[in-house]
Specification:
The protein has 191 residues and is mostly helical. It has a 3-stranded antiparallel sheet with strand order 1-4-3.
């Protein structure tokens, strides 16, 4: 019986580790690499060029009503994540793959920017007697802005092929991230 319990616990640990390893939380110090794109492309190879960078903003919290009422800083409840096992690259050359990785990094950076904007809105809009859905409008508005910005970057950079434009856009995004330094994942905003 102990043997089966240990096997079950080990299996659960492996599944948990596998899922944890497929997620990358944004960090300005750990850029994406070709090896981070682990999904098999649904596109056939040939003269195709494209990618799926599965970037998203994760937000969730669980706390008692009393804790919720006293909590104003939700920074550590909001994460910009890249999902490795649903992201893929399709390119013919190493140079094209690097362009797609650079494009995906820019999209990941934009996702962190909007995660910070969301953290800021949560901090500013959370009141002592807010209900647990206080974030819904901010989340919806910022998601629309994020999608519009991603579409703009995709169009203007031709999915990363215009490297000069991509560099300019990424520099601007990183400057905007720096302006919101109080709203990083583990920061405590000034009151």
């Amino acid at each position: 019986m102990l043997k089966y319990t240990l096997i079950l616990l080990f299996s659960i640990f492996q599944i948990t580790q596998s899922n944890a390893q497929s997620i990358i939380v944004w960090s300005g110090e750990s850029p994406l690499k070709i090896s981070d794109f682990m999904a098999k492309s649904p596109l056939n190879s040939g003269n195709l060029y494209g990618c799926q960078a599965s970037c998203s903003i994760d937000f969730g919290f669980r706390m008692s009503a009393a804790s919720f009422m006293l909590t104003k800083n939700f920074n550590n409840k909001v994460k910009a994540v890249f999902t490795r096992n649903t992201s893929y690259l399709v390119a013919n050359t190493e140079e094209q793959k690097q362009q797609l990785v650079a494009y995906s990094q820019c999209i990941f950076d934009v996702t962190e920017l909007y995660a910070r904007k969301f953290r800021k809105r949560l901090f500013e809009e959370k009141k002592a007697f807010s209900n647990s859905e206080f974030y819904a409008n901010a989340q919806e508005e910022l998601q629309k802005e994020l999608q519009a910005r991603e579409n703009y970057i995709q169009t203007v950079t031709k999915l990363g092929q215009n490297t000069e434009e991509l560099t300019k856009i990424r520099t601007q995004v990183l400057a905007e991230i720096a302006e919101l330094s109080d709203y990083c994942y583990d920061c405590k905003p000034k009151k």
